[in-house]
Specification:
Helix content is about 30%, strand content about 25%. The chain is built from six helices and ten strands; from the N terminus they run βββαβαβαβαβββααβ. It has one domain: Spore Coat Polysaccharide Biosynthesis Protein SpsA, Chain A (Alpha-Beta Complex), CATH 3.90.550.10. The longest helix has 11 residues.
Length: about 190
């Protein structure tokens, strides 16, 4: 199956003091590189990086093998980035969706979730009791999720409304699901 990885990296990092999360140093390079490498090495055929607040800076350091998708409406919330990314990925059969502030992502995790995915379902990695990323959608479901998302919600209401089709896959042993939202979370890097 043709798979697009979408990295949501458009936010302004307001809870982090207005810093671009994609540019945070992680393992000697920008955090964006860790996320993109995991998606590509884990089985995605293409990776699209949705940028907004720090678009030029993030585009300047994007790794090879990525496509930048600009979201001029990024300040209206994650839903606008989800729509822009999904629109750009429509040629693929499925989409692996993740956020840029997930330093624990690995190729093994991505491969595991992609392998667990079945057409007609949404595959949701679970870390303990906590849902995480990357979430894998058939493209038609990703389009539906993007179309109904509002504000800063992302795909949450689509997942809740389609609970019976969501395949929860235990990924606890594969990654630390913590993200980087606040200055206290910076300890998750390196």
């Amino acid at each position: 199956m043709s798979t697009a990885g979408i990295v949501l990296a458009a936010g302004g990092g307001s809870r982090l003091g207005g810093r671009a999360k994609a540019l945070l140093p992680h393992r000697g390079r920008p955090l964006l590189h860790t996320v993109v490498d995991a998606l590509l090495d884990g089985g995605c055929d293409e990776v699209l990086v949705v940028v907004g607040a720090f678009g030029e800076d993030v585009a300047a350091v994007r790794p090879a093998g990525t496509t930048v998708v600009r979201n001029p409406r990024w300040s209206e919330g994650m839903s606008t980035s989800l729509r822009r990314g999904v629109e750009a990925a429509r040629d693929h059969e499925r989409i692996a969706l993740t956020v840029v502030d997930f330093p624990g992502i690995t190729a093994e995790l991505v491969r595991h979730v992609l392998d667990a995915h079945r057409p007609g379902t949404v595959t949701l990695p679970i870390f303990g009791e906590r849902p995480g990323h990357p979430v894998v959608f058939d493209t038609a479901d990703a389009v539906a999720a993007a179309n109904e998302a509002t504000g800063d919600e992302g795909a949450r209401s689509f997942l809740a409304r389609n609970r019976e089709r969501v395949r929860r896959v235990d990924c606890t042993r594969l990654a630390d699901a913590g993200d980087v939202d606040t200055p206290e979370d910076l300890q998750r890097l390196d």
